[in-house]
## 1
Amino acid sequence: MKKKTGRRGVPDREAAYPLHPMPDCTVLEAAALMRCSPSTVYRLINAGEIDAYKRGDRTLIDGESILALKERNRIKPGEFPEAVA
C-alpha cells in the first residue's frame, strides 16, 4: 500500500486533492511545499506576500497565493549573474 504522508506528516497532494491544482493548506503544509520553516510562512503572511485566513484556530493559506509568490520570485533566463570560478 502506498504511503499517504510525506515529509513531516504532510498528506500526499495527489491523493488528497486530485482535481484542484493548488488547494488551501495549513502553515505546516505551506512550509513543506515552499521548503522553508513555519516561521517564514508567518513572516510572509505578515508582510502581505501570501494570503491567509483563519478557520477556527487554524491558519489556512490560499494555495493560489503560494503559486503567485513563486511566480513573482522566479528567476528568468539572463537575470542571474554568472558564477565566477
Note: The mean pLDDT is 83.
## 2
Amino acid sequence: MLRLARSFHHAFQGLQHCYQSQANFRLELLVGMVALFLAVWLQVSSTPIVLCCALVLSLEMFNTALEALCNAVTLEQNPHIKIAKDAAAGAVLLASYAAIVVGILEFVPALRIKFGI
C-alpha cells in the first residue's frame, strides 16, 4: 500500500510540475474546462470532450518529460534530439487539432439548436 501511495505522490508531483512550469498546459487545461462547461450547458455527451482533454494534457505532459530528459542528456544542438522534441510537440498539436474537430462536431449542432440557427 505504501508503494501505491508513493506512486500516486510522484504522479501528482508530475502534474504539479507541468501546471506550474508549462504555460501551454495551463492554457489547455483552461480550454478543457471551458469545453466541459459547454458540454454540460448544451447537454451534449461529455465523454468525447473528457477523452480529448485527457489526450491533449497527457501528451503535453509526455512532451514536457521528453524535453526534460533530452535537456538532461545534453544542451548542445543534436539533430536526433531535435527530431524527438519536434515529434513530441507535433503529437500535442495533432491531438489539439483533433480535439478542435471533436468540439466542432459536438458543439455546432447543439449551438444551432440552442439559438435556433
Note: Residues 89 and 115 are 37 Å apart (CA to CA).
## 3
Amino acid sequence: MAKKDDNLKEMSFEESLTNLEEIVKKLETGEVPLDEAINEFKNAMSLAKLCDEKLKSAEEAITKLVKDNDETVDFEVEE
C-alpha cells in the first residue's frame, strides 16, 4: 500500500481530480461489480483526501503571503 500512496502523492491536483471524476462516472453507471465498486470507492476516498490536502496547502500559502505584507506576491506552492 505504501507504493500506491507514494504514487498518489506524486500526482498533481489536476491529475487527482481527473481520476476522481472518472471513478465517480464509473460508479454512477451502477454496472460495476460490488468488489470492484468497493475498491474504486476506496481509491476515490484517497484521491479526495489528496485533493483536499493540496487545496489546503495552496490556501495556506496564499493566506500567509497576503497576511505578511498586504500585497500580492508571486509564489510557488511546494508539493
Note: Residues 2-53 form one domain.
## 4
Amino acid sequence: MNTGLLLPNLWTAPEDSVPAEVRGDADYVAVLAASYGLSAAQAQSVRFVLQAAREEELAVLRAAEATQLPPALQAQLLAARARAEQRLRAVLTHEQRTRYDAESRPAGRGGFR
C-alpha cells in the first residue's frame, strides 16, 4: 500500500523548502487540471511546459547586461550577488577565504582579475 497517496501531506516537503515558483506552478496546474479535466499525464506535461518557460525566461534575463535593467533591478541584482559572495566566503576556511579574496579582486585593486 502506498501511504503517500493516502496521506500526501505527511510525505511532501515542507512548504518553505519548495521554491515559490514551483508552488505557484503546482497551484496553476491543479486549477487547470480541475477546470479542464486534465489527465495525470497532461498535468505532468503542463508542469514541464511551465518549467521550460521559466528556464527560457531566466536565459533571457541572464543574457541581459546589468545596465539594460532598470535601476531598481540593478540594485536587487547587486544585492543578490553580494549575498551570494558572503555565503560563499562563509563556506571557506580562513586560508581559502584569504586566497579567494586576493584572487577575486578586480585588476588594479590588488587582485589578479
Note: Residues 1-63 form one domain.
